[in-house]
Amino acid sequence: TQLLEQSPQFLSIQEGENLTVYCNSSSVFSSLQWYRQEPGEGPVLLVTVVTGGEVKKLKRLTFQFGDARKDSSLHITAAQPGDTGLYLCAGANTNAGKSTFGDGTTLTVKP
Amino acid sequence: DVKVTQSSRYLVKRTGEKVFLECVQDMDHENMFWYRQDPGLGLRLIYFSYDVKMKEKGDIPEGYSVSREKKERFSLILESASTNQTSMYLCASSTSQGLGETQYFGPGTRLLVL
C-alpha cells in the first residue's frame, strides 16, 4: 500500500507570513496533485506535477515535485486569510485509476 | 464547467435505516469514487468504479455497497446505518484518458446517524 505523509498536520500563522507544507512518501508516483478544501465543500484541484524536479507557480503558491517523484512541497508566500483551508496532496500512477491521499494540512491564516 | 453533484448536503438518519447517497457527474468520466472524510483520518476510499456495472472495493468497504447502472451516476448504499458511519461523504470522478489523475469532487454529504 502506498502512503503519503503530510506535515505539519496543523499550521496557524499571521497574515503576511510564509509557510511550507510537505508531502512525503517512500513510493514513486507518476504524478502528484495538490488540492485545497474549504469547510463544508469538496476538495478542488490546485495543481498537478508530473516531472521530477518540476516547479509550478500559481500566484503566491509554489509547488515542487521531488527529483525522485516521491515527495512534494507547497510554499505560500505572504499568506492571506483567504488561504485558510485544508491542503491535501494525492499521488497517482498511470493506469492505476485511483489516487492515494495524504491526511492533509489544516492551515489557518489570522488577519 | 465540470460538475459533480451529490443528492444531499446534510442527512440525519436513525440506526438501522437504509441510506442512499447519490452522485451524478456531467463530464462523461469513466471513473467514480466514494470517500469518507473524518477528522484526523483524512480521505478514505470506500468503493470505486471504472465503468458501468463495475465496482472495486477500496480501503474501507465494510458496511457499504455501491451501484453504477449508468455512467453518470454512482450510488453509495448503507444497508443498515450505524453511528460509526456518521461522517462526511465525498464523491469524485475522473477520466481514464491521458494521465487521468485529477479527481473532481462533489460538495459532500454530511451524514449524522443517531
| End-to-end distance of chain A | 40 Å
- Helicity range of chain B: under 10%
Q: What spatial form of chain A do the alpha-carbon principal axes imply?
A: globular
Largest interface: A-B, 23 and 27 residues
> Number of helical segments of chain B?
0
- Our measurement of the CA-to-CA distance between the termini of chain B, rounded to an integer number of angstroms, reads 37 Å
Assembly type of the chains comes to heterodimer
What share of residues are in beta strands of chain A?
Answer: over 45%
Query: Which structural class should the secondary elements of chain A be placed in?
Result: mainly beta
Number of helices of chain A: 0
Unreliable segments of 5+ consecutive residues of chain B: none
The H-and-E topology of chain A, N to C, reads as: EEEEEEEEEEE
Q: What is the radius of gyration of chain A? A: 13 Å
Strand content of chain B: over 45%
Quick rundown:
Chain A has no helices and 11 strands.
Explained architecture:
The complex is a heterodimer of chains A (111) and B (114). By secondary structure, chain A is mostly beta strands. Chain A has no helices and 11 strands. In chain A, the strands form 2 sheets. In chain A, strands 2, 4, 5, 9, 10 and 11 form a 6-stranded mixed beta sheet that branches. At the A-B interface, β4, β5 and β9 of A face β5, β9 and β10 of B.
